[in-house]
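[audit] Reproducing an earlier prediction to check determinism. Same input, same settings, fresh worker. If the tokens differ from the archived copy the diff job will pick it up downstream; this log only records the rerun itself.
[audit] input (169 residues):
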Amino acid sequence: MERATAFKGLVFEPFAEQDVIICTPIMKRAFDADTKIHTEQSEGGPPGYVNGEFLRNWYMHKDAMPYKISKDGWPCGALSLWIRDDSVNFLGNIFIDPELQDQGFGMIIWDFIEKTYPDTIKWQTETPAFSRRNHHFYVNKLGFKIVSIKNPKNDVGARTFFMEKEMVG
């Protein structure tokens, strides 16, 4: 992975151990904002999102391709990808500071991903069932399709949608 790549006003650089401390508060704000929008709870996210454990486990994993995202010299989010030998790749997650959401940065991030990994045959991801804003982004903006639901009989907090996007060309 190269050092840093400027792309349409954002800078993508390899996620490093010191970025756990920098990005954990951004991740907490992003996940809490999403939870507040879609549930009656004021906080919520995956296990370890509050204390950096999630980022240490998944972004520092030897098989992950994680990036810290900055705008105007300030860290504003991150993304984690799993690039596989069979070119069926997995988007672990994307998060961006709530102050920058709904300004087109998600599309810029996705465009960066597709241009950086052009040999991808299919992208896969999953997202909480309650997060309608994520569904809109993945399905309506990016062209993913919901292919299955994990834990369909559990409460909405445990239910997740598994999505795929077939790449054409």
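[audit] rerun output stored. Observation attached for the diff report: The radius of gyration is 15 Å.
[audit] end
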